[in-house]
Design brief:
2 copies of one chain form a homodimer.
Chain A (H helix, E strand, L loop, with lengths): L12 H22 L6 E7 L5 H11 L5 E5 L5 H4 L5 H6 L6 E5 L4 H8 L5 H20 L3 E8 L2 H13 L9 H8 L1 H15 L6 E5 L3 H24 L18 H9 L14 H25 L3 E7 L5 H9 L7 E5 L5 H4 L5 H5 L7 E5 L8 H4 L5 H20 L3 E8 L2 H13 L9 H8 L1 H15 L6 E5 L3 H19 L3
Parallel strand pairs in A: 1-3, 1-4, 2-3, 4-5, 6-8, 6-9, 7-8, 9-10
Helix pairs in contact in A: 1-10, 5-6, 5-9, 12-21, 13-21
Chain lengths: 503, 503
């Protein structure tokens, strides 16, 4: 989930300077129109210390007219507040229609802190999150626009930032023992945040994870999202709809051009080192090792009744088929199923899009391999426009819930994205056209998909950002070298199974 | 919650016979149109044994074309099914678009049974219910129409029915030891059902509690609701909306006329014995007893930091003010607040309708009396059309969540509906017009509300049906005799406080 916010996104100073005047003007304009509108805008800032929550709130107050903004930062509840139900202080501070509220460390803060400190159990944590989700639903059902930003930094980036603050006499006040104590609990904190975001990211009030390292980038992203959210709310109010249609229809105007360029440039895929490879000799040995290991593990899985679901997604010609064959080659045919997922049949189209995948859940103790999967909803269906924006935005949550049920039932979820460079894909396409027995593998659709490489890149990045969870993480495979890719797939699968199975 | 389904609603045989032919024709017509529509209809039947779940399902299959109906009854999961996540078997049976599914004892059955048998904790129960709610949301977001019927019988009615079945050689097979075992657990069962219904009744998939005692009544109610739900879905599909607007716009055509008459005749209010009274002499003694008891209890509450919220709703001139004064007359002025709730101010209208009530939550250890309350949303706002049908349907759930947070925080919730007969109201109105110092109490609005007595009766009945929960039950007060009403209010409040407070 946070991988997509650890890729070093930044905006040059000149790009930033070119964006700001226009964005400020647009924000003021939107704010002006909002004043007469029948709904409030509620913006939540949460996230990692020093990832720029406070600075962003200050900046928004500077960019917009602060008279119509309510800004609140919450610390521990006072005695007064403790005597009322948890949400009382937030209800009290809710903005009236026509205003904007910027809330720092609001209703997500104490559930996450209690969970990190193990003061509450997972199911108590879930109950608090459900309560918060119901609270937000009551507000959005009433017309409110809710935006939730999770400002993120990697553990290393946070350490660097804390250290640099300590050295700077002007910034030193920012760093106390508390900040370092939090930093040491980074992993627990991020695990709790992962669960919170997963369970409370709804189509009406979705989380946006923002990489906080570069000040220019994060400021523009938050400003653009806020501007667009207000505009969508106004549009909806003009049309007299009660509920916001999430983000549909306004797609074209969504990201500012500079941000769009950043999104295409810096993403989880571009962080992969595609030069990684394995010689044929080493491949042979490693393949044999990993296959025999997998065979033993799958026998143990069968005995223990533990099912595994492996999802393979990736570019056309990225080697999904080859990797899958190296997995199944290691196994007894009774132990696995490969489910190739093509366009849905007539019958499947008459059901919810998840229905056909539910059908294919196999009995206990088996490995089910999905060659493409339910992620089609947020990849091809998104890019080709078969799923509207509100549909694929909702799909992230539905998919997370689906996988949560699988994992909750004891199933091990392993998800692979096979990545190759655009050049490598072209090389493979040409190879397929030239080699007679490979010709069937390439069609017009592949060339069409290739033309939308940039759109797919954004879709993949969003998919990883929204569905790579602690319980079902994505593994990105550097696929330019087939040897390397296949061994990494086998090793990852083996490691995950070993981790899950009893000795 | 179930009080409203224990009032003895019935439909005469002649009324039934007059309704059925037309209803069948309308159901068939709706079903025919549904076949080409882009959504499925899913109908759940749950409830008390022998309340007619199975008979109703059979009847619907008889009334409609069974070729386009999927009927499923679920028992304990098979080995096959146990090897998959809980919801797998239901996903598998979901109807395609254009079809109707009738599900008996489906996804609510095992969570409720596990809870009744104490095999799971309350928070595990809640987690299962939230999972189920998310499942239903995924389906309704995709366009599905979901109807949930809870078929209810009172404990006494169920006993009578079981006994009569046992005597009848043709029905004897229906009653086994299991049914009697269930009957003995009636209270636990109903408590779990109360929680399940409260937490999963959403505006898109609301529960309908149906009184199951009279076969004619329950059959027509279910048939009418199903017909209307299909029609609403078709209308929505024609307008190209994704989400159903709950039940708005089709209000006029909703209940069949005979059912409407039954709803007005048999309701929770008509079950009250308005002839109950207390002589002045007895009143004096009882009042003094109860007031001094309340005074002691409220002192204890202050020491223990336990807050009480008492809600007073009732007809105009039903004696709310007088009853409230008898409560406050017993207390130290520092110990209570009376919040009179009139039409919202400009500022309050600019917020969510619950906002102004959140503001008035007092500090720990106090009694807060709401003279009218948040229930205005589902009473006057519903009847006067200030809240649309989708808004007040959603309000039931929002109010239940609100009260759950209050009770969860340790607050005691006591809710009164003061009932008087229409004739008694007229008498009091005339009295007010004649007595100079009472004249201010009566205005045009009171006469207007009086004219809508029948609409209010239905609204009150729905309010009790949907918001009288185990944690925050309604107490209905027989109010024709003021002495009796005041003592019952004081006694109820005292009993609830005594129950809640530590010795």
């Amino acid at each position: 989930m946070f991988e997509a916010a650890e890729v070093g996104r930044k905006l040059s100073k000149s790009d930033y300077k070119a964006q700001v005047p226009r964005l400020r003007w647009e924000l003021l304009e939107a704010q002006q129109q909002l004043r007469k509108a029948p709904f409030p805008v509620i913006v939540l800032f949460a996230g990692v210390d020093t990832a720029g929550k406070g600075e962003t709130v200050n900046l928004l107050n500077e960019w917009m007219d602060p008279r119509w903004i309510v800004t609140r930062g919450y610390t521990d509840p006072s005695g007064e507040e403790r005597e009322r139900p948890r949400l009382w202080r937030y209800w009290r501070d809710l903005p009236p229609r026509g205003r904007i509220a910027l809330f720092l460390s609001a209703w997500y803060s104490s559930p996450i802190r209690h969970r990190v400190a193990s003061r509450i159990s997972t199911s108590e944590f879930d109950a608090l999150l459900d309560q918060v989700a119901a609270f937000e639903r009551a507000l959005t059902d009433d017309g409110a626009v809710i935006l939730k930003f999770w400002m993120h930094l990697s553990k290393a980036a946070q350490k660097k930032r804390l250290a640099s603050f300590e050295k700077d006499p002007l910034q030193r006040w920012r760093v106390t023992k508390k900040q370092w104590r939090h930093w040491r609990m980074f992993d627990k904190f991020v695990a709790a945040a992962d669960r919170a975001i997963r369970r409370t990211s709804t189509d009406q009030a979705p989380w946006q994870i923002v990489e906080g390292e570069d000040e220019h980038y994060r400021s523009i992203v938050v400003g653009v999202e806020l501007r667009d959210a207000i505009r969508r709310g106004l549009e909806r109010a003009r049309e007299g709809r009660t509920r916001s249609r999430a983000t549909a229809k306004t797609r074209e105007s969504r990201p500012a051009r500079a941000i769009d360029r950043v999104a295409r440039q810096f993403n989880v895929l571009d962080n992969l080192d595609l030069s990684r490879q394995l010689s044929d000799a080493r491949f042979k040995t490693r393949l044999a090792e990993q296959q025999s290991r997998l065979n033993l593990l799958q026998r143990r899985a069968r005995q223990q009744g533990v099912s595994t679901i492996a999802v393979f997604e990736g570019w056309d010609a990225s080697g999904k088929g080859g990797a899958i064959r190296r997995v199944t080659g290691a196994l007894d045919a009774r132990d696995y199923d490969v489910i190739p997922v093509a366009a849905p049949t007539e019958e499947e189209r008459a059901h919810h899009y998840l229905w056909r995948f539910w059908r294919h859940l196999s009995r206990a103790g088996r490995l089910t391999i999905f060659d493409r999967s339910w992620y089609g909803r947020v990849l091809v269906e998104r890019v080709e426009g078969f799923a509207r924006e509100d549909e694929y935005m909702r799909a992230y949550g539905e998919i997370n819930q689906f996988e949560e049920q699988l994992v909750g039932h004891g199933i091990l979820m392993v998800k692979f994205w096979l990545h190759i460079s655009r050049e490598e894909q072209l090389r493979r396409f040409h190879d397929r056209t030239r080699t007679s027995y490979k010709k069937w593998k390439i069609g017009d659709e592949d060339w069409r998909n290739r033309a939308r490489w940039a759109d797919y890149t954004i879709a993949v990045n969003d998919m990883v950002a929204r569905t790579s969870t602690r319980i079902a993480p994505w593994t990105l495979i550097e696929g330019n070298d087939k040897n390397f890719a296949r061994v990494k797939v086998l090793t990852t699968l083996g490691d995950r199974m070993e981790n899950r199975l009893k000795k």
